[in-house]
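Record minuted for everyone:
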Amino acid sequence: MKVNKTAVILISFFMLLGISFLGYYYTTMREHPRRLPTYGNPGHKVGHFSFLNQDGKTITEKDLDGKIYVVEYFFTTCEGICPIMNENMVAVNDAFKNDNDFAILSHSVDPEIDTVAQMKKYSFKFDADPAHWMFLTGNKDSLYKMAVDDYLIPVADSTVEKISPEFIHTQKFVLVDKDKNVRGFYDGTEKSSVKKLIADIVELKKEYQ
């Protein structure tokens, strides 16, 4: 069988070209990972807070120093989106539960009902380790102010359910980096959006390597 030398040369050339491209792509992506956007006005950072977790321990922004974390707002007696959100949050928790540089903050929007004891009982449903997944309660005005001013959750957003003039509820998950910058928003009721959140956390971690 006669071998077409030209064809062999062309095939070899394109194989080498493909290998070179894959090597370049891998090296580029490893050295220059996809960078997530930063939200808010220039210089915006998550500020001071002080809430109680499910063990009654005071948690402040200092406890999140050096950590990437995900924020949500919910209430324990919710029969609508909250159970879906927290079932989906389990996937986020499971993906990073052995990572000491990661945490989840689940804030109550109904702190009069969601006492420390109530939050503790609720956290058992999700086998939440308070060192990594913190269910937070405290002053209602402070909780709401954090949502709007610090985590940039817009009250007028279509994903926010205004149950009453003084009660808001959102299905957003918010991603915050180690420098307390807001880096992403995700629909906590949609598995595809939660999968993207997990992938984005992996990418965000590369910024600190």
About this structure: The longest helix spans residues 5-31. The chain has two domains: 1-32, 50-206. The chain has a mean pLDDT of 85. The beta strands are 50-52, 58-60, 68-74, 102-108, 133-136, 160-164, 167-170, 172-176, 182-187.
